[in-house]
Amino acid sequence: MISDRILKHKYLLKSFNCLFPIKEKDNSDTFENDITDLVKKYSQLLPSFSPLVVIAELKLWWTSLQNLSKIPSNLSELLNNIVPNENDYPNVYKLLKIVATLPITTATAERSFSTTRRLKTFLRNTMAENRLNGLAQLNIHRTIEVNPEVMLDELAKRKRKIDLVL
Predict the structure, then answer these.
(1) CA–CA distance from 13 to each of 69, 72, 117, 121 (Å)?
(2) Which stretch of DSSP H or E encloses residue 57?
(3) What is the distance, to the nearest Å, from the Cα of residue 72 to the centroid of all Cα atoms in its chain?
């Protein structure tokens, strides 16, 4: 059911709120529960498996942010701020990268499946993967202008099984 899917994403994204520096956290138990959930969920991607280490690292990172003249207000500013300190705060860096790459909706994936369904029809069923990938790229990047003369010159440079004399 769609409401179940939305609720799962809502709770997942809500647990990432603990990464953002706020002067005072509402409830330290909720904060620690959110960090523990994130560490359990992404334990294979994080350098440290312990939620206590991640909590301590996060608090140290927040302290370093307090020394800045302007506290970052969005995710890209936070990531840009932590990049120089990537080795100092590896767990926080990984978690911020994860939240930055989470899709907001499933529309992109659904759009790519629709495109594949249009490209791979019954008549094109024997198409090789290389050609299917090329057609999908052409469909995705349809706003890029393709110069036919340049393409023909590029294709003419490739070695062929049959030499055509023109």
Answers:
(1) 28, 19, 31, 38
(2) helix 51-66
(3) 20
